[in-house]
Amino acid sequence: MNVRRALPVALPPAALWKLLWDVPRIVGCVPGCVEAREVEPHRRYTAQMSQRVGPISLSLPLDVSVTGAEPDCRLALLARGRDPVIGAEIAMQVILVIEAQGEASVLHVEAEGRVLGKLGALGHGIIQRKAEEAVDEFGARLQRAAAG
User: C-alpha 5: how far from its chain's center?
Assistant: First the structure.
């Protein structure tokens, strides 16, 4: 699965950077994320995701590690999780790059992942489409969060 998007955000880069680190506000932007908490600030987080992909519902705990951060510019994350009920495993690398655009920003999202187990058997097309929809919804919610 591979998704690339350029998401306009009505915030300058420094304010967008601050929003990306605001865990309670970002949880509301990520489709399917029901909770998240800091384990080690700016380094490691846990999250609980619930999604329906085709006929399969999954709930998986995620470990999220920050693999790189350049203030006001770039954030790289690695998320891994396994649904204990259906045995689906997910590993995802996400790179967020903030580009200034006047008084606003464009957030470039590059997400690359793999899905194993029962969920992976659904096929690349269904998983790819669900990932694209999730990133697009994230962009819409991020815009709303940026607006206040």
Answer: 12
CA distances from 52 to 46, 57, 126 (A): 20, 4, 11
Q: Would you state the pLDDT for residue 118? A: 64
Alpha carbon distance 118, 89 (integer Å): 9
2-147 CATH pick, 3.40.50.2000, 3.30.530.20, 3.40.120.10, 1.10.3720.10: 3.30.530.20
- Retrieve residue 16's tokens: 């967008």
> 83 pLDDT band (50/70/90 cuts)?
confident
Total residues belonging to the chain: 148
d(CA 67, CA 42) in angstroms, rounded, equals 10
Residue 56, strand partner residues: 53
Question: pLDDT band for position 122 (50/70/90)?
Answer: low
Q: How far apart are CA 34 and CA 110, in angstroms?
A: 22
